[in-house]
Amino acid sequence: MAPSKEQMDEMKEAFTLYDIDRDGLIPSSHVGSVLRSLGVNVSDAELTKLSSELGDAIDEKKFMNFAKFKLNETESEEEFVKAFTVFDADNSGYIETAKFAEYMMTLGEKLPEHEVQLMVQEADPTNSGSFNYHEFVQRIMAK
């Protein structure tokens, strides 16, 4: 989904605040701070990659494109988390691993057991019997 006009305005305003010398550029080292000030999650690895591709500074157009991409990614992450809340009866943030596997094989588009087992291993790598679905979604989205 495309960012709203309000979100676009906020991104431009944030860029302008960090463009201290008004040359249309901000230091690549500040991109993470700008995005996080907008509530956009960005990993250090992504910032390192962006900096290596763009050099020491980023212009407004490239910043806006990257910010829109990350904003859409964040919204997708929130949608995944929201989908998991349906199975979190006690609102604990955790889902039982066995029930998760059962849901994946029986509800909606039924997944083959071997695919479900791969998902279960990713969701609950320590075999604790339950997993934090917020963390699971973050790991999946980071790949």
Write out key terms for the chains shown:
143 residues; mainly alpha; Recoverin, domain 1; 2 domains; 7 helices
Termini separation: 21 Å
- Gyration radius, in Å: 19 Å
| Largest β sheet strand count, sense and barrel closure | 2 strands, antiparallel
Q: What is the percent of helical residues?
A: 55-70%
CATH class of the largest domain: Mainly Alpha
So how many helices? Answer: 7
For this entry, what is the oligomeric state of its chains? single chain
String of helices and strands: HEHHEHEHHEH
CATH architecture of the largest domain: Orthogonal Bundle
Structural class determined from secondary elements: mainly alpha
Number of domains: 2
- Compute the number of strand runs: 4
CATH superfamily of the largest domain: EF-hand
Tell me the strand order in the biggest sheet: 1-2
Give the percentage of residues in beta strands: 5-15%
Arithmetic mean pLDDT: 87
- Spans of at least 5 consecutive residues with low confidence: none
GO molecular function: calcium ion binding
Protein name: Myosin I light chain Cam2
InterPro entries: CALM/Myosin/TropC-like, EF-hand-dom_pair, EF_hand_dom
Could you write a compact summary of the structure shown?
Pfam families: EF-hand_7. The protein is mainly α.
Describe the secondary structure blueprint for this structure.
Elements: H1 5-18, E1 25-27, H2 31-37, H3 44-54, E2 57-59, H4 60-85, E3 94-96, H5 97-106, H6 113-123, E4 130-132, H7 133-142
Antiparallel strand pairs: 1-2, 3-4
Domain EF-hand: 6-41, 75-110
Pfam families: EF-hand_7
InterPro entries: CALM/Myosin/TropC-like (IPR050230), EF-hand-dom_pair (IPR011992), EF_hand_dom (IPR002048)
